């Protein structure tokens, strides 16, 4: 934020700097508040719908007609495995070593580098998820308070204010906040399309690079999520090789956000960018030092509340700078001690990875099958906690306004909180991200009955292109409203039979 000297001009109370709207209130004391400027779709999907969900959350017993949360990428499918391990290992959760309390040791000051035992266990867990095809040096790991902190820290380390990173669309909407707010780094989209299942192409990369140049932005790198959020797909070897060749030719960085690497439940299997570097014999080269990995335990282990993230880099300067910056977002020693014990238990980690992926595969199949029965298709995916859902046939017109109208109906009338594609900067209206791993099977089945009833009700109304449809587009169709209420009542009455 830039603070100007001198009084405000008459009537002046706001101005804009570097993508932030600054509001000023002048009284006995002048105060400043920085209000982030969201893209329209993001503001709606990350603010308005979440508020509506909080006002009316679904509860099987207390509020069976409430809004079901399907916009939260949270993994709640394997908590029982974690809880069983904790019950069997009371020393870890009780902060003991060989039966003796080490609470005082953990509570006192710790080095910013993190506990060596935890960093070693985390590095080995990352290797295990990647099929032990690559190795990670724990000395090159920088611990951060989640992946959010890791991504922002890398922006500070690699770019200056006004520099740009290229991101393939659609991408996680939170990047507009994580990468830009404080760093003032710009994002330039790599436009990917449904015609090739949103894969990254050489032309798309070059077009994004040239667009940035035309905007007088210096491109410092490319950031990808692998597996992709929101697509739920892994990057192919062809795409990874393309990216490595691209950053080599341009002399820029590559950040691979691999926080969903352990959620791959179907073929093709996960390929880390580190594996590609090894295959191309690029170790100890300039390119080797310009590739960085972001990881966390929020998705693979289902522990977002623990705030455990990491940066892995082969560049010693990046590691040194990121380590210093990590002092602003450390992982507690107690958390590190507990997780080092858990991740060092190889029998547990092997079983957890396998069982968690099996459960994700089963739950993903349930969602896809339920949507198919409602006449809705998904992008074929093999990873993640969500599906990229195609509802273009339900739009009243091919526009983002029609997408938002459909999204509002799904939130307010159907009672499903999902994310519109426009919030992910998708260039094609009608795509939505739908999460499936943060609820019970019963709740997911209820959500599928609701969406099926909604689609059926739309087919009984007049054609979307008819004038009367557009005239009444903002009104709730009585037949649709009655049908949805009937589904809600039916689902509440039959819950016991479903079990």
TrEMBL record:
GO biological process: ethylene biosynthetic process; fruit ripening
Protein name: 1-aminocyclopropane-1-carboxylate synthase
Record CDD domains: AAT_like (cd00609)
Gene3D superfamilies: Aspartate Aminotransferase, domain 1 (3.90.1150.10), Type I PLP-dependent aspartate aminotransferase-like (Major domain) (3.40.640.10)
Annotated family: Belongs to the class-I pyridoxal-phosphate-dependent aminotransferase family.
Keyword annotations of the record: Ethylene biosynthesis, Fruit ripening, Lyase, Pyridoxal phosphate, S-adenosyl-L-methionine
Organism the protein comes from: Cinchona calisaya
Pfam families membership: Aminotran_1_2
